[in-house]
Amino acid sequence: MGPTVPQTRFLQLVLPDYLAVLLVERGLASNSVASYRRDLESFGRWLAGRRLEAETCERSDLRRYLTVLRGRGLAARSAARALAALRGLYRYLVERGACTHDPTLDLESPKLMPGLPHFLTAEEIDALLAAPDVSRPLGLRDRAMIETLYATGVRVSELVGLTLSQLRLDPGYVRVWGKGGKERIVPVGSDARAWLGRYLEDARPGLDTRRCDELFLTVRGEGMTRQCFWHLIKAHGRKAALAAHLSPHVLRHSFATHLLEHGADLRAVQAMLGHADISTTEIYTHITRERLRSLYDSKHPRA
Question: Over the stretch 86-101, which tens digit does the pLDDT of each residue have?
Fold first, then answer.
């Protein structure tokens, strides 16, 4: 049996009426109403323990309640759902005249930590790079594209949008216009430069039937599209026996992760990725810490 629920006024009268409104008047599914019930019964028990009434709660009280939820180990997503239930409850109470104000107004939801991005190991990168058949022009193009993507960490839209004038093979960089039209210069490593040189000399002239300015061309002589390249990299991933979650963005994540693992400065990685906020780049530091912990656990004799 579950814990006894204190039979407060809120739990005896207010909550049943509100749940009935959700079910009958607003037509919510029974599963959704059950979820609201669980979240609001938890709130009711918290109110009872502090001898508070829902109608007289202030924003500071609700902040304390959310802090308690997080202290119990509740995930941010679940805490955000609990806050959504409170918002609905207080809108109902204000509409019914039971509350003179809504304490959930301007109350921030618990921040959701983004999931750690998927990335490839160095061995998986090697397998992917070896997948295209470079004896054929299209395979040479694909190898050059994958090398460039991993070497620069550009977004797939930036990769397929590259023009001949944006590439500087001799000094070894590409000029990229990212989100908001912001320009950045990204270095291109020696391996990628070598494959780009081979593509430009041996494959692109035969594909350039329409005199396009785009760097990477399709078999029809048009600029490569995001969708086309997404399908290409998935196909090469299957050939290399890689995970099903492979996408162009995975190579961007791999680029950032591998740089940080080898001691690159976080600000430098931020600049190369084109992140406006350093906090976006910091997600990769969580990955490197997780890998360090995994390495320690597997290698240290007393881990």
Answer: 999 999 999 988 888 8
> In CATH, what number does 9-95 get?
1.10.150.130
Q: Where are the beta strands (DSSP E) in the chain?
A: 167-168, 173-177, 183-187
Whole-model pTM? 0.63
Contacts of residues 129-138 at CB distance under 8 Å and 24 or more positions apart, as own/partner, are 130/240, 131/236, 131/237, 131/239, 131/240, 132/236, 134/198, 137/202, 137/203, 137/206, 137/207, 138/203, 138/219
How far apart are the C-alpha atoms of 175 and 178, rounded to whole Å?
10
Over the stretch 37-47, which tens digit does the pLDDT of each residue have? 999 999 999 98
Could you tell me the fold of the domain covering 122-299? hpI Integrase; Chain A (1.10.443)
Instruction: State the catalytic residues.
Output: 155, 179, 249, 252, 275, 284
**Per-domain residue ranges of the chain:** 9-95, 122-299
- CA-nearest of 120, 108, 85, 117 to 15 is 85
**Contact assessment for residue 166 and residue 271, using Cβ atoms and an 8 Å cutoff:** no
- Rounded Cα distance between 224 and 212, Å, is 11
Token pair belonging to 283? 């997600």
Q: Check for a shared fold between 9-95 and 122-299.
A: no
